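Continuing the series of single-chain predictions for the mutant panel. This is the parent chain; the variants come on the following pages.
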Amino acid sequence: YQRTSTNTSNRTSGMAVSEVEYTPDTANVNVDRKYYIKNDIFIKVDDVISRGKNEAQVLKALNPVDHPFIQKYITSYEKDGKHYLETEYFKGKTLENCQLTDAHKILIQTQLLELLACLTIYQIKHADINVSNILFNGQQILLIDWETAETGNPLDDLFGDENHKGILNTLRML
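Parent structure:
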């Protein structure tokens, strides 16, 4: 994610904070969402409350798993007709914006398959794995954008469908 504006004063979680607005470094920026960084907290503000609630519910359910490749849920709430999701901030770039060595590609492939094994245990499928939903910091990945996730067979994430690329197609794009 990249910084796109200066500090502004806003109110979240019932207290005044200074935030920095961020724009994802992806070609598929969603105009119905805004993104902020506050200290080490990533804040996603979603105009579609049901979508934001679904993402929060999935991340909250996965929080006890404490997997290094899954966003860490902090809190979520509704305010002014929008859904706010706060997660731990991860400093990295989307895969579509990374220049990867062969060693990086092998590392990413290994981590994606490890993540898939974890999701299989909990029977949660992400349903939108692609190069713009995977961050990489040179050492590890983080799978983001869980708003389409649902209970189901995570092996569907391996092959993808007409709506998302899946792990195998994502790996081919690296």
